[in-house]
Amino acid sequence: MFDLILKNGNLPDGRKGVDIAIRNGIIEAIEANITAEAAETIDATGRLVSTSFVDPHFHMDATLSLGLPRMNVSGTLLEGIALWGELRPIVTKEELVERALRYCDLAVTQGLLHIRSHVDTSDPRLVTVEAMIEVREKVKPYIDLQLVAFPQDGYYRAADGVASLERALDMGVDIVGGIPHFERTMEDGRLSVEALCRIAADRGLPVDMHCDETDDPMSRHIETLAAQTIRFGLQGRVAGSHLTSMHSMDNYYVSKLIPLMAEAEINVIPNPLINIMLQGRHDTYPKRRGMTRVKELMAAGLNVSFGHDCVMDPWYSMGSGDMLEVGHMAIHVAQMAGLEDKRKIFDALTVNSARTMGLENYGLAKGCNADLVILQAEDVYEALRLKPNRLAVIRRGKVIARTAPRIGELFLDGRPSSIDGGRDFVPLYEGRPR
Q: Are 182 and 288 contained in the same domain?
């Protein structure tokens, strides 16, 4: 007797008509035509069944604060940082918790059940840290929330930056963060990377740094981060987020940099929505896209995962909590429209991001946690194209959210009465798995 069986689902790897049996929150079997009984059975009707989505880079302490204390008129990264600096001293723990929980509600409906959030440690009150630790505990039954100690104003640049970050880690924050390109000098940035990696090594913690989020091709802190990763034996436990300067670097330098990053086993986290919005602001034309070299990094074997970064905050006035929206933008910005490209993009929203976060028992295999999403699409290609509704979101074998299918009604003579965009408008283009 199983707790739940999903019938007739299509999997991201191309398998079709597969059943998934779940007991005690764990996947017990994945095969065709499971005939055992279950307390609940859901017919996926040939829809895509995926592992739950993962966001390895977000700012939950700032989410849904758009317009407070004012709007970002220029739309730039620096004005966003200045705006957050105005809001941070007056924000309360209660409102931080309330906004974060509202966002988590949205995330669940989108099938987003694993999030890594950077938490600003530059205000010595550390109200942001207290609030996000409380949120982490509140959402624990349905979201895996990791917290990064993030010195937004600079580890050395902020007056209490060094002490505040250490206190945040003492309070129970999971990961060491940094922002070397925002320090006063390149040398201060280099020294901050070294100091923060040393702290991570001493405490046995991972590292996730905002690194080279700039159009300046001479911002090369990722080189230092890779070297310090190797020096302190942190391979596989370090993430470089953004890395937008790589978009502007010359090819010869990058041909040396990427192998160093691969040697250090750096996890790379581009943020397509934010990167395309905030970078290239000083360009007239030609105008740079401002996202790191996704295809080249993937080809070199680095683990590349995508983050949503922001939703309705001082830096970004849009966002929906939908990781497929992130992947949709990545396809366009990285110019990865091929079938294999799209499969890699989907992996960057799921399995790659789970690897970045070090999630245990994540996946679609026997013995993995039953954290699943049924989408109103037949495969990963259509999921990325349509950004479809999540028909069911399952956490440890229990349905925790449902969304009705998006069906359009038609009132046209001689035409169908309705259309299901995830089924009735699916082209059979050459090479697409049938």
A: yes
pTM score, whole prediction = 0.97
* Lookup: tokens for 20: 């998934």
Percent of the chain with pLDDT over 70: 98
Domain edge (last residue) among 341, 357, 373: 357
Range of the domain at 380: 2-51+363-420
Question: Which among 380, 424, 309, 420 is positioned nearest to 48, based on CA atoms?
Answer: 380
Rounded CA separation 19/9 (Å): 6
Q: For 210-243, what is each residue's pLDDT tens digit?
A: 999 999 999 999 999 999 999 999 999 999 999 9
Same domain, 188 and 308: yes
Query: Among residues 322, 357, 392, which one ends one of the domains?
Result: 357
DSSP 393-407: EEETTEEEEE----E
- Active-site position among 28, 183, 213, 325: 213
Q: Which helix (H) or strand (E) holds 160?
A: none
Q: How large is the greatest C-alpha to C-alpha distance in the chain, in angstroms?
A: 72
* In a shared domain, residues 93 and 45: no
User: 199 with 317, same domain?
Assistant: yes
Please report the pLDDT score of residue 421 as a whole number: 81
- pLDDT exceeds cutoff 90 at 291: yes
98 catalytic? Reply is no
The CATH number of residue 275's host domain is: 3.20.20.140
Mean local confidence (pLDDT), 78-82: 91
Q: How many angstroms separate the CA atoms of 357 and 371, rounded? A: 15
Report the pLDDT averaged over residues 200-212: 98
Whether 164 and 289 share a structural domain: yes
176-208 as b/e, with b when 16 or more CB fall inside 10 Å? Answer: bbbbbbbbeebebbbbbbbbbbebbbeeebbbb
261 and 153 in a single domain? The answer is: yes
